[in-house]
Amino acid sequence: MAEDSLATTFLYTLSGEIQSGDFFEFDSLYCKYSFNQGQDWTLLSGLSEGITQISTKSHTKSYLSNPLVIWNFPLELTYSSTTPFGWPQIVLSVYGLDILGRDVIRGYGAIHLPCQSGEHSFSIPMVVPKSSTIFQEILGTILGRRAEFLSPAFIAQGAGREVTRVRSQGRVVVKCHVILRGFKEMGYSYARE
Amino acid sequence: MSKTQLFSPDIIEEISLSESHNEGDEVDKIETNTVSIEDALLQRLELKKQNLQKKLAGRRDSDSIQIAPPENNSESQSGSGLHDRLKQKLLAMRESASESKLEGGNVLLEQERVQKGRKKEDIEMSLIRKPLRSLPPIATDRGSSKSPVVSFQNENADMHLNQERSEGDELDGIFSRNLLDQNDETASDATEIRDDEDSIHSETIPFISQEPLDILVYQPPRYRYAAERLEQENTVLFAKQGLFPPENNPVTLEQKQGSDLELRVAQEEGLYVPEVMLPPNRTLIAMEHRIVREKAKNWFGEDGQLKGLTGKFQTSSKKGLFHQRKELFSPTNHLIQYQPSAVFPNLDRQSVISNPNQTDIISTNIHLSVYISSLRFTHHWLFSNEHLLCCTLYALQLQYNRLKERDSAEMHFRHLQALRRQLRSLKAEFDKLMLQSLTGIEIEQKANDVTQLKQEISEYRQLRSVELEKEQQLLKRIFKVWSQLKQLRIEQGYVSTAARLRIKKTNVVDVEEDRVNFLTELEEELMELKEEHDEKLSGERINYEVAYDQWRRDQGERKKLLDDSQGSALSIPPDTPPPVPVSEFVEAEVRRRLNEEYLAARRHPGQPVLTPELYLNMPISGQIEDQKELSRRREIEKLSFFIRVRVNGETACETRHRKLKQDFIIDFQEQFQLELRHKPESVILQVYQASFNPALLAEVPCPLPIDIPVQKPATNPMLQSLDFTYDKVMHVKLGLGAGIPSRGGGILPYTTGVLNSSAELYGQSGSNCTERDEWKGYGKLAKLPLDAEKIRATLTSSRLDPNDPRNIPLLQLLRSLPTEDSSNTFRLTRMDLVRPFISQREFLSNPNFNTIKEKHQFELSSARPVQYDDELTMLADSPVRTQPSLEDIQPMSDQDFTPWHPGTEKFYQMVKHDISKQAEIKTPDYTLEEVVIEDPVPNTGILTKYIHQLFSPKRPLQPKRVPRRTLPSKHTNIRELNLVLRVLQGYNFPTRVIEPDKPGPRLGRTLAGQWRESSSAHVSTMMSEIQEDISEDDTPNETNPFIEIRFQGTTYRTKQSLGVNPCWNEELIIKFHTPVPTSTFSADSLLSSTDILYFNAFDLVRVDALEDERLRANTIKERLQYRWLGSFQIPFHTILVNSRVDGTFKMQAPKMLFGYERADRLDDTDMQLSMFITLDPLIKPHRSIYATQLDKDDKKQIEKFKHETDSLGNNFPDREYTVSVCDIDGRQVIVNRYISPLNPPESLLSQEDPCNLKSLQRISRFVSLIPFLPDSQCLEGLSDVWVPAEEFLKLRCGDEEEHATLLLNYFLFLDIEAWLVLGFGIPEGSTSYVLSRDKRSRSFCLWNPSNGERFAPSDVNCPLLHIYTVLSAKKIHFNIQSSTKPSDIIFDFSNSRKWKTCVVAEGIPQNSLQPSELVYTPPDLAKASQLQDTIQHRLQHRIEKWRSRMPTHWNRYASDMLNEQLIKCEESYPHIPEFELKQAFEALFTTFQIVGFPIHLTPTSLKGIEEQVYTTGIHTCQEPGVEYVLACYVHPYPSDVHSIWIYLATMVPRE
């Protein structure tokens, strides 16, 4: 650890998976993910964004009353940073195919990555923006163009939320393991190493 | 078991109930233990069981003995007697127990049977069942000892057991001892035992009874009434044990003092008795009772009250050092506590582990509770005469009441009497001493005391008479006012105030006594006066005698002198009158005088005592006829008021608006609870008159308590009456008004009132330690500057009366003042207590915090990613600086030539820093469209558009431009940014000239019509296509122009076109690379980009390179030549800011191009290119920082004009009306301050007529030569900064507006009518031009300051497209015409329908930001030639480098020749002496084929020059034997401004 005493960055490694989605009424879903982080954070390795396969629910009724959409999509990345400001967030946007096979947004969600080492599992509640009028909603449903966020990263930021109306819709379970390194040398304390 | 039964039945019940469920476990445990123990132990246990039974039996017996009538236990029986008796009983018990032999099991069985047989209450059942369950005696014993109730016996039991094991048979003895011990311990135990003995009776029977069962008698538990029990306890126990039962009745005085003692209340004698600290009332009564019982009378004072300490405060701390330290370092003392978070693997993520300690931190708040009760006006402008009188009456009555309450006359009287008594005794003592004829200090002291007493007596006497007089006069005034009020009411015929005075008349009971008292007092005073007089007399008599002797001697001498010198009366002293002897005391006269005084000032003896009482219950007349009064009352009802509470200068809350009532009292009755972090510095109540614009009547500071209790005090807060005055003169028709002279003379008071309110603080304060405890009691005194010595000196010298209650705090302060040795007390201010997050040192040493700090500093001022280099340190280290000055800036290294001042960048950095410090960040609000995509609702507008589209004729050749969607600037996650560029058409391109002597396709064989074929942008593919398609019939002298675009080092190219007006209509996608690879396409990084788009028009010339003519039949060998035609540049920044650039742009074409000539020879038609550039995705980053601070001088003006422009903006939303701009200090100043005449350089002016066109052109050229640097580039998107001319010339760089203002100011100096035009132009967007009017022709003329060109407003090619604002030195004209095009605008500024004119206030021109005179440095020839050499060498070097694959030959001869020509070019600018140039080359033309052009460079850095030369592509010439010609000329202008000319040519030798 002697060489770490002069460290100017700390490392954050996350490995895990986007396990499953629980969208009660929707099926055939896929999930896009990306990470949103501050300026000081640099991605050292790993895919900063990706897209899962389209996954369909199991139809055996007896197994579970509310079957899940399973993706089991692996995540693995390493960040380095000098400051915790702009702590990375995982941004998920789940799309599904509607009856006519068009891509329709099923939910947006974001959560800060855990800042403690160890195993974490969290279920991210998802929301979709509501159409501003009923007419537009009907129109959107017919045309398969529902109200969407211009950028999925919008859900990870605070500004401009006041103009939107959203409806909650399902949840996505993400499980991950976190390894931290060099935090203590940079003057940050955390519970376990 | 025996222990258990020692307790009263209810305790047993408790135990049994509570332990019934776990008793079984206990039993098991014990049993297993017992199993493991050896047989011997078992035997012992058996033995013990028996013993216990014996004991119980014995107890039964003892009960029978013990149950005696209570009267047996008389009070006289002492404690020891009881013990003896108990011992006896126990001995008897032992004897009887030894006889009893019975096994426990049998007993129990029998007992059960009994229970079945008889019906018992449930409680008793459980009581009895208990022994059944806990049969093994030890088990029960232990089980019961578990209970906390019997904890002290637990030890006994354990000890007991141990002893049992060792001693076995001695158990009984131990038991008895044990019992006795208990008996000794406390009296209360004794009572318990007694209680038990009563109740045990019934229970113990089954165990011990050896008699037949039917003897068993069950009794319900005996209930004793509380009163009975208390009495018993009182009589039997308390008295016996020396205790005192608590009593609720207070102790009477007789009990305290006995009947013989007389009470003396010091207060009544006028002495000050400090408040005694006494315990709460209940405790006090108990204490008094005890004292009475103990007959310790000395605890009571003379007044029958308990004596007590008077000091409220401790003078020294009782906390030890250790204690303090512990407190200091205890974790709770820290405001921030670090609690490491933890992951618990077995817990869910959701289950947050809360830390109970954290609540402590939160509750450090202070609650402020403000209660506003009512508001009463003591004077109001709507008062009538009656109100005025009423208020006077009220005030008088109040005064009277206060006087009566204090009753100082009476107090003084008592004091006086006490003093007199003292004097008498003192005198007696004095006499005694005199009799003993003792001399010395003692007598002297006594005499002193006597005189002092006398003095005091006379003082008090005077005080008393003053008080009495005051009271009497007050009474008189009250009566007078009341009679006036009554009179007034009768006169006006109605009542409008509720005041009513009742005079209570109390007849004196004994008239004679009253008179006697009166006379006695008079006599006493008389006596004292006489004594005083006598003393005075005795003193003065001696004086008189001395004086008289002197006088007589003087007289004698005088006579002698008179006799001696008859004539000369010079030295004779004047005749002095003899000294007056001291008058005798005339008793009768003094008595008469006193009597008069007494009668005047006091109540006459025998007269009844009159007490006025004011009531507010007079009914106000409802129906009155006086119209004025009615309207006055209506007016009152219109008024309403409210109170605003301001805490620490911030408005905290306000009451509801309440209407004023007829009695001028407003009831608010509102309470506010506020939570504060610190103790508030000030709480101010503001009285407002509610209206549309609430008027502040008064501000009343609300006094706050010094102590902050932790809990809210339960008692109601003390209402405080706060007076306020509204010092505004009110003239009112209906009322009397306020502050104006009244009709009856004098001046009416201002509006005044009384606010009843209270404010109290409670809650835990984190700042208790700031004020030392002993300082708390002294209110404002504690806030005095801590000059302890001064305070001490003042207090000691003033000799305060310790008997005056008012002085008590001061005296206590004096006592608590720090002594000299501890005077340097360290005190914290409250604000210092706010603990920093971390220590400063840690903050500085930690790299993280440094990063954060720097980031914060740079957040506003920088758009680039933070770099930790000198730039940063420059800002970080810069001390406080008011204005950036050029003197601060050290020139940077001189390695690279820059046309502007080397310190420019730093200057702008400073400006930026200053602005960003003052600027306000405005985050533009989001709109839904910026966030959410959804299909728009088809409204009629869209529908009609669709319908229109449906029916409109389709014109595919004239497609309409669909506007791109603009991405909001907040989107920073753009992956890719492209420039979309559509090159449409060129105009006035030059025609290639075929040399007459070398005709034909040998040279300049071009490919006409080539452009029709599609070709890719890549040169290689294009080449191949060209190769394929050669036609013989191409027109040789037509140019084949194409446009090459160079951006960020990459070249893009259009296809070739043909002719003078070529048409491309080609779209190019140019990829934008961010300057720093990692950074995103954020607005900041984009705005800092300094890239420039270079557009170059080239002519593609094919040169036949076939050397062998014989091969011509089947071989084509050609060489391609790119001949530069013209260029044009747009900074990327312009595109970014304007989001699209669209129009026809003038290309900078060399005026003379060898080998080419203009088709149209007209001067004003330039080579032009029309195109359209935009971004994909279309982002419009705008930094949201504006300088918001208005200059204080211009503030009013700017606000006024802004208001104007806002209203104009409603009509013309697209127009940008400019009123104020940001100056270098970051303030908003009015634009006109930049306009004032400035002297141009002398050398530029024509001698004969400075105003002729040539001179003007020279000036404008000079201005345009000053290098150009957009503000938005240096300031990275901060608002445009206008630099004054002096700095502008020094920096030698600026934006359009600096150029424009300078040019304008020059024009103004030359007395030319000129204006500053602000508008929109291409390509730069928002721009500034100068408008001038010719003196003779009265025609207008627009000057482009950035290149010095001149346009007529009607010129179609004018790059200024829109005009919004036109400014002169004193006026601002806003364009309100329907068109903004210069060609459509009517420049008649007096026409108010065309121009909205605002006149700037007079002071502005004087307040100009421009200097009064500009000083120019003379042209520096040496520097220019040096620069010339530098450029020449550099370019030569570069060209050689670019042509590294082939040799580069330089033709020196031609170079020198061209150099001369360049000087001519400069002289004759803007006209190029084309003919002369041609002539000069005439000789060369014969042997060389020359392609070349002069470039007049826009002043840029050396690198920029290189880049511009590179883009001409002249280095690409690959003809064999080509010779290069490079000429460079730098012409110096004043103030280091240079004009740079470069001539480039290639000379290819003809065969």
From TrEMBL, chain A:
<dbReference type="Pfam" id="PF07162">
    <property type="entry name" value="B9-C2"/>
</dbReference>
<keyword id="KW-0966">Cell projection</keyword>
<keyword id="KW-0206">Cytoskeleton</keyword>
<comment type="similarity">
    <text>Belongs to the B9D family.</text>
</comment>
<dbReference type="GO" id="GO:0060271">
    <property type="term" value="P:cilium assembly"/>
</dbReference>
<dbReference type="GO" id="GO:0036038">
    <property type="term" value="C:MKS complex"/>
</dbReference>
<keyword id="KW-0963">Cytoplasm</keyword>
<dbReference type="InterPro" id="IPR010796">
    <property type="entry name" value="C2_B9-type_dom"/>
</dbReference>
<protein>
    <recommendedName>
        <fullName>B9 domain-containing protein 1</fullName>
    </recommendedName>
</protein>
<keyword id="KW-0970">Cilium biogenesis/degradation</keyword>
TrEMBL record, chain B:
<feature type="domain" description="C2">
    <location>
        <begin position="1033"/>
        <end position="1074"/>
    </location>
</feature>
<feature type="compositionally biased region" description="Basic and acidic residues">
    <location>
        <begin position="20"/>
        <end position="29"/>
    </location>
</feature>
<feature type="domain" description="Centrosomal protein of 76 kDa C-terminal">
    <location>
        <begin position="1423"/>
        <end position="1546"/>
    </location>
</feature>
<dbReference type="InterPro" id="IPR052434">
    <property type="entry name" value="Tectonic-like_complex_comp"/>
</dbReference>
<protein>
    <submittedName>
        <fullName>Coiled-coil and C2 domain-containing protein 2A isoform X2</fullName>
    </submittedName>
</protein>
<dbReference type="GO" id="GO:0035869">
    <property type="term" value="C:ciliary transition zone"/>
</dbReference>
<dbReference type="Pfam" id="PF00168">
    <property type="entry name" value="C2"/>
</dbReference>
<feature type="region of interest" description="Disordered">
    <location>
        <begin position="562"/>
        <end position="581"/>
    </location>
</feature>
<feature type="domain" description="CC2D2A N-terminal C2">
    <location>
        <begin position="605"/>
        <end position="742"/>
    </location>
</feature>
<dbReference type="Pfam" id="PF24656">
    <property type="entry name" value="CEPT76_peptidase"/>
</dbReference>
<dbReference type="InterPro" id="IPR056290">
    <property type="entry name" value="CEPT76/DRC7_peptidase-like_dom"/>
</dbReference>
<dbReference type="GO" id="GO:1904491">
    <property type="term" value="P:protein localization to ciliary transition zone"/>
</dbReference>
<dbReference type="InterPro" id="IPR000008">
    <property type="entry name" value="C2_dom"/>
</dbReference>
<dbReference type="GO" id="GO:1905515">
    <property type="term" value="P:non-motile cilium assembly"/>
</dbReference>
<dbReference type="Pfam" id="PF17661">
    <property type="entry name" value="DUF5523"/>
</dbReference>
<dbReference type="InterPro" id="IPR028928">
    <property type="entry name" value="CC2D2AN-C2"/>
</dbReference>
<feature type="domain" description="DUF5523">
    <location>
        <begin position="162"/>
        <end position="317"/>
    </location>
</feature>
<dbReference type="InterPro" id="IPR056288">
    <property type="entry name" value="CEP76_C"/>
</dbReference>
<feature type="compositionally biased region" description="Polar residues">
    <location>
        <begin position="71"/>
        <end position="80"/>
    </location>
</feature>
<dbReference type="Pfam" id="PF24652">
    <property type="entry name" value="CEP76_C"/>
</dbReference>
<keyword id="KW-0175">Coiled coil</keyword>
<feature type="domain" description="CEP76/DRC7 peptidase-like">
    <location>
        <begin position="1280"/>
        <end position="1397"/>
    </location>
</feature>
